[in-house]
Specification:
The protein is an alpha/beta fold and about 100 residues long. It has one domain: HAD superfamily/HAD-like (Rossmann fold). About 45% of the residues lie in helices and about 15% in strands. It has helices spanning about 10-20, 30-35, 40-50, 65-75, 85-95; strands spanning about 1-5, 25-30, 60, 75-80. The longest helix has 11 residues, at about 40-50. The chain is globular and about 35 Å long. It starts with a strand and ends in a 6-residue tail after the last helix.
Length: about 100
């Protein structure tokens, strides 16, 4: 699980130091560090290339429709998040095995 976030470095550092969820990510792409923003295709490509991921094997989840379209434009499957049940159902429909 990887994070792709449009945030400044200070916010990301705050999240890392304040909340335990950040440790769940295998890696992260931070817009302020990359000099790009979602939905620019280059930011999704940076995430993929930095971690050796294949777009065809990657599912992107975001609440903003234009970010979802940005991910799809580089070949990722993408889900627009509305709530946990919808997200789980969408992941299962894509064949993702949920624990």
């Amino acid at each position: 699980v990887y994070a792709l976030t449009d945030n400044v470095v200070e916010i990301v550092e705050y999240l890392k130091n304040t909340y335990q969820f950040w440790a769940l990510f295998d890696g992260a792409a931070v817009s302020a560090e990359l000099g790009m923003l979602k939905p620019q295709p280059e930011i999704y490509q940076a995430l993929l290339s930095n971690y050796g991921l294949k777009a065809s094997e990657t599912v992107f989840i975001d609440d903003m429709p234009y970010n979802v379209e940005g991910a799809r434009s580089v070949g990722m499957a993408a889900i627009q998040f509305t709530d946990a049940v919808q997200c789980e159902n969408s992941l299962q429909a894509l064949g993702v095995n949920l624990l």
